[in-house]
TrEMBL record:
Lineage: Eukaryota, Metazoa, Ecdysozoa, Arthropoda, Crustacea
Membrane-topology descriptor: Multi-pass membrane protein
InterPro entries with a match to the protein in the record: 7TM_chemorcpt (IPR013604)
GO CC term, one of those recorded: plasma membrane
Keywords linked to the UniProt accession: Cell membrane, Membrane, Transmembrane, Transmembrane helix
GO BP field: sensory perception of taste
Name the UniProt record assigns to this protein: Gustatory receptor
Subcellular location: Cell membrane
Annotated TM spans: 20-37, 49-69, 81-103, 124-146, 158-180, 340-366
Amino acid sequence: MQKRISVSDTDMSAKVGVEGAWPVLFRVMGILGFIVAKRRPSGHYETCWPRLIPMVAIMTSVSCYLFIFPHSLNTRNYDSFIHVSVAATSIGLAFNAFAVAVLKRRATCSLFQALDGTQRPPKAWVSILSSVLFAAYVVFCGFKNYLTMHLFTDSIPYLITTLPSPIVFSLLDFYLIALIDAIHKAHKGKVEQGHRRLRRPSGSFPPPSGNLYEVSYLMRVPSVMEHYEDLSGLVSLYNEVFSTWILLRCVTFLLKLATCSYFLVAIAKERAAFAIILSHFAEEVGRFGLLCRRADSLANASKALEDSLFALLQRPDTTPEDRIQLLSFLAHLKSRPAHIAVGSVGVLCSSLLVSLINVALTYAAILFQYQPSSDL
Protein backbone atom coordinates (compact mmCIF):
# COMPACT_ATOMS: atom_id res chain seq x y z
CA MET A 1 0.00 0.00 0.00
CA GLN A 2 2.87 2.35 0.86
CA LYS A 3 4.49 1.60 -2.47
CA ARG A 4 1.27 2.43 -4.31
CA ILE A 5 1.03 5.81 -2.57
CA SER A 6 4.61 6.69 -3.44
CA VAL A 7 4.01 5.88 -7.10
CA SER A 8 0.93 8.06 -7.08
CA ASP A 9 2.84 10.93 -5.46
CA THR A 10 5.61 10.62 -8.02
CA ASP A 11 3.05 10.66 -10.81
CA MET A 12 1.41 13.78 -9.38
CA SER A 13 4.74 15.59 -8.93
CA ALA A 14 5.58 14.94 -12.59
CA LYS A 15 2.52 16.86 -13.75
CA VAL A 16 2.66 20.49 -14.82
CA GLY A 17 0.31 23.37 -15.46
CA VAL A 18 -1.29 24.43 -18.71
CA GLU A 19 1.80 26.45 -19.65
CA GLY A 20 3.95 23.33 -19.33
CA ALA A 21 1.51 21.26 -21.37
CA TRP A 22 1.50 23.78 -24.26
CA PRO A 23 4.96 25.39 -23.93
CA VAL A 24 5.33 26.71 -27.48
CA LEU A 25 1.87 28.25 -27.71
CA PHE A 26 1.90 29.89 -24.29
CA ARG A 27 5.44 31.15 -24.69
CA VAL A 28 4.54 32.82 -27.99
CA MET A 29 1.30 34.23 -26.55
CA GLY A 30 3.22 35.56 -23.56
CA ILE A 31 5.81 37.23 -25.81
CA LEU A 32 3.05 38.82 -27.89
CA GLY A 33 1.35 40.03 -24.72
CA PHE A 34 -1.97 38.21 -24.96
CA ILE A 35 -1.28 36.38 -21.69
CA VAL A 36 -0.28 38.58 -18.76
CA ALA A 37 -0.57 35.82 -16.15
CA LYS A 38 2.93 34.56 -15.30
CA ARG A 39 3.89 31.73 -12.99
CA ARG A 40 6.30 32.69 -10.23
CA PRO A 41 8.91 30.32 -8.71
CA SER A 42 6.63 29.99 -5.69
CA GLY A 43 3.97 28.38 -7.91
CA HIS A 44 1.55 31.31 -7.80
CA TYR A 45 0.37 33.22 -10.86
CA GLU A 46 0.65 36.99 -10.91
CA THR A 47 0.11 39.74 -13.46
CA CYS A 48 3.17 40.61 -15.55
CA TRP A 49 2.47 44.15 -16.80
CA PRO A 50 5.52 44.45 -19.13
CA ARG A 51 3.88 41.82 -21.35
CA LEU A 52 1.34 44.46 -22.42
CA ILE A 53 3.98 46.42 -24.35
CA PRO A 54 4.12 44.13 -27.42
CA MET A 55 0.33 43.78 -27.32
CA VAL A 56 -0.09 47.55 -27.69
CA ALA A 57 2.23 47.47 -30.71
CA ILE A 58 0.23 44.62 -32.27
CA MET A 59 -3.06 46.42 -31.69
CA THR A 60 -1.68 49.55 -33.33
CA SER A 61 -0.49 47.56 -36.34
CA VAL A 62 -3.76 45.69 -36.74
CA SER A 63 -5.84 48.86 -36.32
CA CYS A 64 -4.01 50.48 -39.22
CA TYR A 65 -5.93 48.04 -41.42
CA LEU A 66 -9.00 50.29 -41.33
CA PHE A 67 -7.11 53.54 -41.85
CA ILE A 68 -5.15 52.43 -44.92
CA PHE A 69 -7.93 50.29 -46.35
CA PRO A 70 -7.52 50.51 -50.17
CA HIS A 71 -10.90 51.66 -51.41
CA SER A 72 -9.64 51.09 -54.93
CA LEU A 73 -9.59 47.38 -54.19
CA ASN A 74 -12.72 47.06 -56.29
CA THR A 75 -15.39 49.18 -57.89
CA ARG A 76 -18.44 47.93 -56.02
CA ASN A 77 -19.56 49.43 -52.74
CA TYR A 78 -20.75 46.07 -51.40
CA ASP A 79 -17.27 44.58 -51.75
CA SER A 80 -15.81 47.45 -49.73
CA PHE A 81 -18.56 47.08 -47.14
CA ILE A 82 -17.98 43.35 -46.62
CA HIS A 83 -14.20 43.83 -46.38
CA VAL A 84 -14.56 46.57 -43.80
CA SER A 85 -17.12 44.51 -41.83
CA VAL A 86 -14.78 41.54 -41.54
CA ALA A 87 -11.85 43.80 -40.69
CA ALA A 88 -13.84 45.64 -38.01
CA THR A 89 -15.05 42.45 -36.30
CA SER A 90 -11.56 40.94 -36.45
CA ILE A 91 -10.06 44.03 -34.88
CA GLY A 92 -12.86 43.96 -32.30
CA LEU A 93 -11.91 40.37 -31.49
CA ALA A 94 -8.27 41.37 -31.03
CA PHE A 95 -9.20 44.31 -28.79
CA ASN A 96 -11.46 42.01 -26.80
CA ALA A 97 -8.46 39.72 -26.21
CA PHE A 98 -6.59 42.81 -24.97
CA ALA A 99 -9.47 43.71 -22.65
CA VAL A 100 -9.74 40.14 -21.33
CA ALA A 101 -6.02 40.04 -20.58
CA VAL A 102 -6.29 43.25 -18.55
CA LEU A 103 -9.77 43.22 -17.01
CA LYS A 104 -9.97 39.46 -16.37
CA ARG A 105 -6.38 39.06 -15.22
CA ARG A 106 -7.28 37.84 -11.73
CA ALA A 107 -9.79 35.28 -12.99
CA THR A 108 -7.22 34.14 -15.58
CA CYS A 109 -4.61 33.70 -12.86
CA SER A 110 -7.16 31.72 -10.81
CA LEU A 111 -7.89 29.48 -13.80
CA PHE A 112 -4.20 28.84 -14.45
CA GLN A 113 -3.66 28.19 -10.75
CA ALA A 114 -6.53 25.68 -10.67
CA LEU A 115 -5.05 23.85 -13.68
CA ASP A 116 -1.56 23.78 -12.18
CA GLY A 117 -0.36 20.22 -11.58
CA THR A 118 -3.14 18.62 -13.65
CA GLN A 119 -1.40 18.22 -17.04
CA ARG A 120 1.18 15.79 -18.29
CA PRO A 121 4.26 17.45 -19.80
CA PRO A 122 4.68 16.86 -23.54
CA LYS A 123 7.50 14.74 -24.85
CA ALA A 124 10.49 16.46 -26.43
CA TRP A 125 9.64 15.34 -29.94
CA VAL A 126 6.10 16.71 -29.54
CA SER A 127 7.44 20.15 -28.61
CA ILE A 128 9.89 20.10 -31.51
CA LEU A 129 7.22 18.97 -33.95
CA SER A 130 4.78 21.61 -32.73
CA SER A 131 7.44 24.29 -33.17
CA VAL A 132 8.14 23.14 -36.72
CA LEU A 133 4.44 23.01 -37.55
CA PHE A 134 3.91 26.47 -36.12
CA ALA A 135 6.79 27.87 -38.21
CA ALA A 136 5.38 26.14 -41.30
CA TYR A 137 1.95 27.55 -40.55
CA VAL A 138 3.39 31.08 -40.26
CA VAL A 139 5.07 30.67 -43.65
CA PHE A 140 1.86 29.30 -45.14
CA CYS A 141 -0.23 32.19 -43.78
CA GLY A 142 2.25 34.74 -45.06
CA PHE A 143 2.43 33.18 -48.51
CA LYS A 144 -1.34 32.84 -48.77
CA ASN A 145 -1.91 36.41 -47.63
CA TYR A 146 0.70 37.63 -50.09
CA LEU A 147 -1.04 35.85 -52.95
CA THR A 148 -4.39 37.24 -51.84
CA MET A 149 -3.11 40.81 -51.74
CA HIS A 150 -1.17 40.37 -54.97
CA LEU A 151 -4.36 39.43 -56.80
CA PHE A 152 -6.33 42.43 -55.57
CA THR A 153 -3.88 45.23 -54.74
CA ASP A 154 -0.23 46.27 -55.04
CA SER A 155 -0.22 48.42 -51.91
CA ILE A 156 2.97 47.51 -50.01
CA PRO A 157 1.90 49.15 -46.69
CA TYR A 158 -1.41 47.35 -46.91
CA LEU A 159 0.38 44.05 -47.52
CA ILE A 160 2.83 44.52 -44.62
CA THR A 161 0.08 45.55 -42.22
CA THR A 162 -2.19 42.62 -42.98
CA LEU A 163 0.45 39.88 -42.95
CA PRO A 164 0.40 39.40 -39.12
CA SER A 165 -3.40 39.33 -38.92
CA PRO A 166 -4.11 35.66 -39.79
CA ILE A 167 -1.27 34.50 -37.53
CA VAL A 168 -2.48 36.52 -34.55
CA PHE A 169 -6.08 35.36 -34.92
CA SER A 170 -4.99 31.74 -35.31
CA LEU A 171 -2.98 31.98 -32.10
CA LEU A 172 -6.03 33.35 -30.30
CA ASP A 173 -8.06 30.35 -31.46
CA PHE A 174 -5.39 27.87 -30.38
CA TYR A 175 -5.25 29.60 -27.00
CA LEU A 176 -8.97 28.98 -26.44
CA ILE A 177 -8.61 25.38 -27.65
CA ALA A 178 -5.63 24.70 -25.38
CA LEU A 179 -7.47 25.86 -22.27
CA ILE A 180 -10.55 23.74 -23.04
CA ASP A 181 -8.28 20.76 -23.66
CA ALA A 182 -6.52 21.43 -20.35
CA ILE A 183 -9.85 21.41 -18.47
CA HIS A 184 -10.80 18.15 -20.17
CA LYS A 185 -7.47 16.56 -19.23
CA ALA A 186 -7.87 17.79 -15.66
CA HIS A 187 -11.27 16.07 -15.63
CA LYS A 188 -9.75 12.81 -16.86
CA GLY A 189 -6.92 13.10 -14.35
CA LYS A 190 -9.40 13.49 -11.49
CA VAL A 191 -11.23 10.39 -12.68
CA GLU A 192 -8.04 8.32 -12.85
CA GLN A 193 -6.81 9.58 -9.49
CA GLY A 194 -10.16 8.83 -7.91
CA HIS A 195 -10.05 5.33 -9.37
CA ARG A 196 -6.64 4.70 -7.80
CA ARG A 197 -7.56 6.08 -4.40
CA LEU A 198 -10.97 4.45 -4.14
CA ARG A 199 -10.06 1.01 -5.46
CA ARG A 200 -11.70 -1.86 -3.54
CA PRO A 201 -9.46 -4.01 -1.32
CA SER A 202 -8.15 -7.23 -2.80
CA GLY A 203 -10.28 -10.29 -2.14
CA SER A 204 -13.61 -8.42 -2.17
CA PHE A 205 -16.28 -9.20 -4.70
CA PRO A 206 -15.84 -7.46 -8.09
CA PRO A 207 -18.33 -4.81 -9.16
CA PRO A 208 -21.11 -5.90 -11.52
CA SER A 209 -19.87 -3.43 -14.09
CA GLY A 210 -16.44 -2.23 -15.08
CA ASN A 211 -17.54 1.39 -15.12
CA LEU A 212 -14.89 3.63 -13.56
CA TYR A 213 -17.37 5.67 -11.55
CA GLU A 214 -19.09 2.54 -10.22
CA VAL A 215 -15.77 1.17 -8.97
CA SER A 216 -15.15 4.45 -7.17
CA TYR A 217 -18.67 4.61 -5.78
CA LEU A 218 -18.61 1.11 -4.31
CA MET A 219 -15.78 2.17 -2.05
CA ARG A 220 -16.88 5.58 -0.78
CA VAL A 221 -19.48 7.90 -2.29
CA PRO A 222 -18.61 11.05 -0.27
CA SER A 223 -15.01 10.92 -1.50
CA VAL A 224 -16.21 10.71 -5.10
CA MET A 225 -18.37 13.79 -4.63
CA GLU A 226 -15.56 15.71 -2.97
CA HIS A 227 -13.18 14.69 -5.74
CA TYR A 228 -15.36 15.95 -8.58
CA GLU A 229 -17.17 18.98 -7.22
CA ASP A 230 -14.40 21.39 -8.27
CA LEU A 231 -14.67 20.42 -11.96
CA SER A 232 -17.68 22.66 -12.54
CA GLY A 233 -15.64 25.45 -10.97
CA LEU A 234 -13.05 25.18 -13.76
CA VAL A 235 -15.73 25.50 -16.43
CA SER A 236 -17.31 28.43 -14.59
CA LEU A 237 -13.95 30.21 -14.46
CA TYR A 238 -13.43 29.61 -18.17
CA ASN A 239 -16.87 30.99 -19.02
CA GLU A 240 -16.33 33.99 -16.78
CA VAL A 241 -13.19 34.93 -18.69
CA PHE A 242 -13.88 33.84 -22.27
CA SER A 243 -17.67 33.72 -22.90
CA THR A 244 -17.79 37.18 -24.53
CA TRP A 245 -14.63 36.35 -26.47
CA ILE A 246 -16.24 33.20 -27.88
CA LEU A 247 -19.38 35.16 -28.82
CA LEU A 248 -17.30 37.62 -30.84
CA ARG A 249 -15.43 34.69 -32.35
CA CYS A 250 -18.72 33.21 -33.58
CA VAL A 251 -19.72 36.53 -35.16
CA THR A 252 -16.32 36.86 -36.82
CA PHE A 253 -16.49 33.27 -38.05
CA LEU A 254 -19.91 33.84 -39.63
CA LEU A 255 -18.81 37.04 -41.36
CA LYS A 256 -15.66 35.41 -42.69
CA LEU A 257 -17.67 32.50 -44.06
CA ALA A 258 -20.06 34.97 -45.70
CA THR A 259 -17.12 36.83 -47.23
CA CYS A 260 -15.56 33.63 -48.55
CA SER A 261 -18.93 32.51 -49.94
CA TYR A 262 -19.37 35.83 -51.72
CA PHE A 263 -15.99 35.73 -53.41
CA LEU A 264 -16.21 32.02 -54.22
CA VAL A 265 -19.31 32.81 -56.25
CA ALA A 266 -17.92 36.04 -57.70
CA ILE A 267 -14.58 34.63 -58.91
CA ALA A 268 -15.58 31.04 -59.62
CA LYS A 269 -14.00 31.22 -63.10
CA GLU A 270 -10.60 32.39 -61.85
CA ARG A 271 -8.89 29.25 -60.63
CA ALA A 272 -6.00 30.80 -58.70
CA ALA A 273 -8.18 33.25 -56.80
CA PHE A 274 -10.84 30.58 -56.25
CA ALA A 275 -8.27 28.19 -54.73
CA ILE A 276 -6.94 30.88 -52.36
CA ILE A 277 -10.40 31.88 -51.13
CA LEU A 278 -11.33 28.21 -50.74
CA SER A 279 -8.23 27.68 -48.58
CA HIS A 280 -9.35 30.61 -46.41
CA PHE A 281 -12.77 28.97 -46.07
CA ALA A 282 -11.29 25.57 -45.14
CA GLU A 283 -8.88 27.10 -42.63
CA GLU A 284 -11.64 29.02 -40.83
CA VAL A 285 -13.91 25.97 -40.69
CA GLY A 286 -11.03 23.77 -39.49
CA ARG A 287 -10.01 26.05 -36.61
CA PHE A 288 -13.54 26.77 -35.45
CA GLY A 289 -14.45 23.09 -35.85
CA LEU A 290 -11.54 22.08 -33.63
CA LEU A 291 -12.71 24.57 -31.01
CA CYS A 292 -16.23 23.08 -31.12
CA ARG A 293 -14.91 19.52 -30.93
CA ARG A 294 -12.93 20.25 -27.78
CA ALA A 295 -16.02 21.81 -26.22
CA ASP A 296 -17.99 18.68 -27.19
CA SER A 297 -15.42 16.40 -25.54
CA LEU A 298 -15.70 18.34 -22.29
CA ALA A 299 -19.50 18.23 -22.35
CA ASN A 300 -19.47 14.50 -23.18
CA ALA A 301 -17.16 13.77 -20.23
CA SER A 302 -19.52 15.56 -17.88
CA LYS A 303 -22.50 13.76 -19.41
CA ALA A 304 -20.77 10.39 -18.96
CA LEU A 305 -20.23 11.18 -15.29
CA GLU A 306 -23.86 12.18 -14.92
CA ASP A 307 -25.12 9.01 -16.65
CA SER A 308 -22.89 6.80 -14.52
CA LEU A 309 -24.06 8.36 -11.28
CA PHE A 310 -27.67 8.04 -12.40
CA ALA A 311 -27.07 4.34 -13.13
CA LEU A 312 -25.61 3.93 -9.64
CA LEU A 313 -28.70 5.61 -8.23
CA GLN A 314 -30.84 2.88 -9.79
CA ARG A 315 -28.83 0.02 -8.30
CA PRO A 316 -30.82 -2.03 -5.75
CA ASP A 317 -27.90 -2.26 -3.32
CA THR A 318 -27.52 1.51 -2.99
CA THR A 319 -28.16 2.59 0.59
CA PRO A 320 -30.64 5.39 1.37
CA GLU A 321 -27.84 7.60 2.65
CA ASP A 322 -25.90 7.14 -0.57
CA ARG A 323 -29.03 7.82 -2.62
CA ILE A 324 -29.44 11.19 -0.93
CA GLN A 325 -25.80 12.06 -1.62
CA LEU A 326 -26.05 10.94 -5.24
CA LEU A 327 -29.22 12.95 -5.78
CA SER A 328 -27.51 16.02 -4.34
CA PHE A 329 -24.50 15.51 -6.59
CA LEU A 330 -26.68 14.96 -9.67
CA ALA A 331 -28.63 18.14 -8.92
CA HIS A 332 -25.32 19.99 -8.66
CA LEU A 333 -24.20 18.66 -12.05
CA LYS A 334 -27.55 19.56 -13.63
CA SER A 335 -27.41 23.12 -12.32
CA ARG A 336 -23.82 23.67 -13.46
CA PRO A 337 -23.23 21.66 -16.65
CA ALA A 338 -19.79 21.59 -18.23
CA HIS A 339 -20.82 23.71 -21.22
CA ILE A 340 -18.67 26.36 -22.86
CA ALA A 341 -20.91 29.42 -23.00
CA VAL A 342 -21.25 31.66 -26.06
CA GLY A 343 -21.87 34.89 -24.21
CA SER A 344 -25.28 34.50 -22.62
CA VAL A 345 -27.04 33.35 -25.80
CA GLY A 346 -25.96 29.76 -26.35
CA VAL A 347 -23.49 26.91 -25.97
CA LEU A 348 -20.39 26.15 -28.03
CA CYS A 349 -20.86 22.76 -29.74
CA SER A 350 -20.68 21.03 -33.12
CA SER A 351 -24.33 21.80 -33.86
CA LEU A 352 -23.48 25.51 -33.64
CA LEU A 353 -20.74 24.95 -36.23
CA VAL A 354 -23.19 23.17 -38.53
CA SER A 355 -25.75 25.96 -38.11
CA LEU A 356 -23.25 28.68 -39.01
CA ILE A 357 -22.03 26.74 -42.04
CA ASN A 358 -25.63 26.27 -43.17
CA VAL A 359 -26.18 30.02 -42.92
CA ALA A 360 -23.07 30.64 -45.05
CA LEU A 361 -24.13 28.06 -47.65
CA THR A 362 -27.62 29.54 -47.81
CA TYR A 363 -26.05 32.95 -48.35
CA ALA A 364 -23.87 31.48 -51.13
CA ALA A 365 -26.95 29.92 -52.78
CA ILE A 366 -28.70 33.29 -52.78
CA LEU A 367 -25.63 34.96 -54.26
CA PHE A 368 -25.38 32.28 -56.92
CA GLN A 369 -28.82 33.24 -58.17
CA TYR A 370 -27.69 36.82 -58.70
CA GLN A 371 -24.29 35.77 -60.10
CA PRO A 372 -22.05 38.67 -58.96
CA SER A 373 -19.56 39.43 -61.69
CA SER A 374 -15.84 38.72 -61.33
CA ASP A 375 -14.81 42.28 -62.10
CA LEU A 376 -12.95 42.89 -58.88
